[in-house]
Amino acid sequence: MASSSTPPDEPSQSFTTMDKDVEAIGSHCQYTFCNQLDFLPFRCESCKGTYCLEHRTESSHKCAHAGAWAAARRKKDAEAAASSTNTGKPTLLTATQCSHPACKTYINTLSSVGVGCQTCNRQYCLKHRLREDHDCTKLTPLGARPASSSQAQNLEKAKAALGRLRVWGKEKAAASPVLNPKPKPSSAAGRAVALNELKRTAKGDEKIGAEKRIYLHVEAEAATTQSKFPKGAFWYNKDWSVGRVLDEAARGLQVQNVNNRGGGEAEKLRLFHVEGGRLLEFGEKAGDVTANGNTVVLLRGVGPAVPDLIAA
User: What is the spatial distance between Cα 62 and Cα 55, in angstroms, rounded to a whole number?
Assistant: First the structure.
């Protein structure tokens, strides 16, 4: 057979076609009882035998080394993958320095491991891995878009509004509740009268059955939102999620709602439950976290919901 100076390509099957020089004289199939002269013979890559078209596969000629070709190929692929992912031992040339400005320690080496801070997205040594040790609150996270002056002002307004609502929630928790604008009646009879008045003036989807309705006072916080109507009385389906109630409340007070368009927290609306003293999660069920006669407030740019603002 003719030999080539370059190694052949890795076969994709367990058999390969013999060299073209063999075609001139042919070759006999080595399978027992066959011995057919084939001018286009095949070589088995497992046992290296020569076979005809009918007996070229491992199963057809009952190969004594069946699977050897596949095992060798898997081993070669594994070695190639290992060599491609092995970057070698870390050295001073490949290591990085701790992100603390006063620290010169090299991290991600054999002697010093690096720890990533998920808040500021920087790498630190073990000594400066804690947020308090590298003044994380004063750093702008890597990859974060710097806030403009208008965004900073809106954030301060949102924090101030949230602070006022926390105080309002504490007052309600201390049994001195405030209901839009009149004090909430403390007696059961007074509460029933107030609830009946709320039901009389409330608006909502008429398709919601009376047994499914939950009646709420809704307000739009003036410092962070712009609304056509500052407050209103509405009923919603108690099985709705807080996110859907928020959408309907924003539509009822005609407040711009961009929650479903993506973007950052600076433009998102949140729903503050005054009696509970906390921001409600979008996925919570309205009937589980609010009750008839409660007050919810629309806020913008106050960030994700906090479990308990009164106890915080």
Answer: 9
* Nearest by Cα to 15 from 3, 31, 4: 31
CB-based contact 52:36 (threshold 8 Å): yes
pTM, two decimal places: 0.43
Buried b (16+ CB within 10 A) or exposed e, 178-207: ebeeeebeeeeeeeeebeeebeeebebeee
pLDDT exceeds cutoff 50 at 181:
no
**pLDDT of res. 12:** 63
Rounded distance between C-alpha atoms, residue 138 and residue 97, angstroms: 20
Q: Which CA distances in Å does 9 have to 16, 43, 45, 60, 156? A: 11, 14, 13, 24, 67
* Angle 50-52-53 from CA coordinates, rounded to 5°: 130
Encode pLDDT of 41-53 as tens digits.
888 888 888 889 8
For residue 280, count other CB atoms closer than 10 A to its CB. 21
pLDDT at 240: 92
